[in-house]
Amino acid sequence: MQDIKAIAQEIVAREGGYVDDPDDPGGATKHGVTLGALQRLGMDLTRDGRIDKADVAAVSQAQAVDLYIRHYFNKPRIAALPEMLHPSVFDMYVNAGANAVRILQRLLVQMGYELAVDGRIGPKTAGAARAAAKVGRVALRDAYGVARRNYYFRIADRRPASRKYARTRKGGKGGWILRAESFISPRYHLSEAEFQARVSSWG
């Protein structure tokens, strides 16, 4: 089994330090941990009786790693999925919550498996993922990564303020797209021309 702590540490490194971007619906974050997450978990890190941006700023890397493992890997039962999906689904769960599972479930439904798209990893979702992995482990991992990339594109299509996460100021691939593609085989990465064609309608 892969080292889940190492995967969590990589996620924390990708997320970076304290950011409070008004265009980010998640609001203030540090190491990817949002104010909303701290409030849901009752984590008053400054021990002042309030959970606010000061608590976000106080999140350490070690605390973020522990939080991710307990609440974004163990609690949603990602370990029940085939091992090669762990890094990408875990990373996406940190980034998008239960939508990470819904993306996988929709993919499995498209592949012909019968299961509910409910964002929860139960026996049917885990079983379908394992069956699909037996047909093609790398293919399933790549298909999930492509579906994840498409999820980001759809958000940016609907919400212009989010386009800066999918496309840089210079017009190249943004963090969302690079993040999704880091988990798939290079042959499925969009070329510069393909990327530009995909985002051309954004102006």
TrEMBL record:
<feature type="domain" description="Peptidoglycan binding">
    <location>
        <begin position="99"/>
        <end position="181"/>
    </location>
</feature>
<dbReference type="Pfam" id="PF09374">
    <property type="entry name" value="PG_binding_3"/>
</dbReference>
<feature type="domain" description="TtsA-like Glycoside hydrolase family 108">
    <location>
        <begin position="9"/>
        <end position="97"/>
    </location>
</feature>
<dbReference type="Pfam" id="PF05838">
    <property type="entry name" value="Glyco_hydro_108"/>
</dbReference>
<dbReference type="InterPro" id="IPR008565">
    <property type="entry name" value="TtsA-like_GH18_dom"/>
</dbReference>
<dbReference type="InterPro" id="IPR018537">
    <property type="entry name" value="Peptidoglycan-bd_3"/>
</dbReference>
<protein>
    <submittedName>
        <fullName>Secretion activating protein</fullName>
    </submittedName>
</protein>
<dbReference type="InterPro" id="IPR023346">
    <property type="entry name" value="Lysozyme-like_dom_sf"/>
</dbReference>
